[in-house]
UniProtKB/TrEMBL annotation:
High-level lineage: Bacteria, Pseudomonadati, Chlamydiota, Chlamydiia, Parachlamydiales
Top-rank taxon: Bacteria
Name of this protein: Peptidase S9 prolyl oligopeptidase catalytic domain-containing protein
InterPro entries: AB_hydrolase_fold
Length: 177
């Protein structure tokens, strides 16, 4: 995270530029028929989860899968001083009908279990406001492991990959599969 801290000091919009470049690359792949939007999912771990969440808010994919996602940049001691809109809650309304699954440790002190919960709750509330009465959004807590409870065990990655495969290859939801 020290590299991100320095990058924010050098260019406060560096992350927005990076995400915009990713968006353009994905849209190019869709336009060329290399990627099918109907079978497109985004995923990431920790800060990759942050990027996946932002990207999913820009490109209406079918699914979003995150593991121990960083949802509030300024929660990290290295990024306390950045002034941008940094919480993924700011982008929840743009997730539309995307199916979302998040895994996090029950006491993740690095990215904050509560931050993840608040983000997931904001997605559900936005979808509910859009008349989606049963939002396909899940938060799965498991015992925290690793440094500051920010580890993810292999079985969690396996479960998430299985879920993403189900979502992208079949119609309908596979909630809690």
């Amino acid at each position: 995270m020290s590299s991100w801290s320095q990058a924010f000091k050098d260019d406060p919009d560096f992350l927005n530029h990076f995400i915009e470049n990713l968006k353009e690359a994905v849209l190019f792949l869709i336009a060329k028929g290399i990627v099918s939007k109907e079978r497109l999912g985004f995923g990431g771990l920790s800060r990759g989860g942050y990027i996946a969440g932002r990207l999913a808010s820009l490109i209406k994919a079918k699914a979003l899968l995150v593991y121990a996602p960083l949802t509030e940049l300024t929660f990290l001691s290295e990024l306390k001083e950045i002034q941008n809109k940094t919480h993924l809650k700011n982008y929840s309304k743009d997730l539309g009908e995307i199916e979302v699954r998040a895994y996090i440790g029950n006491r993740d002190q690095r990215v904050g279990t509560r931050n993840c919960f608040d983000w997931i709750e904001s997605i559900v509330e936005e979808q509910y406001k859009d008349s989606i009465r049963s939002p396909k959004v899940e938060l799965i807590l498991s015992p925290s492991i690793g440094h500051k409870g920010h580890g993810t065990p292999p079985f969690v990655f396996d479960a998430g990959a299985h879920w993403m495969g189900m979502i992208l290859t079949e119609t309908g939801s596979s909630l809690l599969s």
